[in-house]
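Sample A.
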Amino acid sequence: MGEGTRIKLADPCVGKPEEDAVLRVLRSGRLVAGPRVEEFEDRLASFAGRTHAVAVSSGTAALMAAMESMDVGPGSVVVVPAFTFPAPAIVAAFLGAEVRVCDVDPATFNISPDTLSPVLDNDVSLVVAIDQFGVPSPAIHIEDMLRERGIPVLVDAACSLGSTLEARCCGSFGKAATFSFHPRKVITTGEGGAVLTDDDNIAARVRRFRNIGMEDGGFLSLGLNLRPSEIGAAIGLCQLDRIEDIVERRRALARRYRALGLDLQGSPDNTELNHQTLAATLRAGADRDALIRALAHEGVEAQVASYCLGSLPRLAKKLNIDDTRTPVAKRLHNLGIALPMHEDLKDADVDYTVGLVHDWLKRENPVK
């Protein structure tokens, strides 16, 4: 955030309850993987309607632990939507799998049965369905599509805690799902993540993997130190206490943005969104990066919405990805913009931001 920024892109809402909770942890002398973590896991599992929630040190750690527990490794083929933060693809490749990308729906920015079909061969081991910016992916339909083939679905629900699809909480879909609690997410633990599942074996493997392969005092398998902190869990518990209020404020802000005429990310029917990110797309030919600079000049923080994996040269070369096969993801990569969205945002801030965007679009007249 620059010195002149007065309207932040994101701003985690923490206060006296979080401060008091952290102080209690510091005084307890137990800072890692203790009772606060266990309580946080129980609350997450209950909230999402799953049997198990296993907390880890980050959202990327959650993806790593989940994929490892689902036997992703050399010889595996993992399908990932092309429009995403690169973490799911990087984790799959790090574990030794081949990464195959599919395009996304132009309205929801998510994977769909139609975009998945062209890359779905018999060699696919796992499909990652991402709830982009908190909009639920059609995981139910993708699971139905893959059931006869025996291909599991991992839902990257990093952004979607508090969203629902057909009255079910995000995080409840897929063989397993992952959450992130990075400060830009709807609730935060400072940094952290979790794997949610109804599968006892997956949960046990994730717990062992996060603890360097240890279980019952012995080293039973390979693993990493991905343990969560008690401090982060204490913060997360306070945030969970307020999640309904946090999400409701975000929904009100999103309604205001939409009423002011921006071309925003869409969502399927029967969904309620948490609006983790306020993502808009510009008209073809617009210089999105110039708009971000113009907003910054006026004190408003914005950034690119997300990335097309095939449009990141070094990563695309490493993973052998061609962005010409994912035109929607490529367009969103070039024209997508994330605008301020957090619960402390004022209505007047939304009006000011959208006014700047409309003024810039009129002034630049970017249609070619």
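Sample B, a different protein:
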Amino acid sequence: MKLRFLFGTLAVIWLAAVTQFSAEQSKSVWDGVFTTEQADRGAATYKTACSECHGQDLAGDGFAPALSGSDFMGNWNELSVGDLFERIRISMPPSGPSAVTPAQKADIVAHLMNSNKFPAGTAELEPKTEVLKGIKIELKK
């Protein structure tokens, strides 16, 4: 009897953990994962740190990829915001990735999300790859 109770309790705990993990993994860019203020800060940082290569309009320059529109979505659809953040974190700007802080890079990602017409919400993107990996980039809601 005690063994059944123990297994039943463990099953409930396991199910709760799996449900929580699934809920965290099912977040999408359509769920309002950045704030308007964060996107505005990101736009300012983007202008000084990224626009030289990617353009003021985020359209790219032939060498640097577009960061908005169908080209951007074709490259990032079904990946995570964490994947995008990590790419930017470790390699951008090419002249010195450490010149822009992780917090500023999260702001830039918020600007990219905003520019790609994803809705703003009430919480800011955290500058942590493992947290951002739980947010999926999806072309359609």
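Observation for Sample B: The chain has one domain: 28-136.
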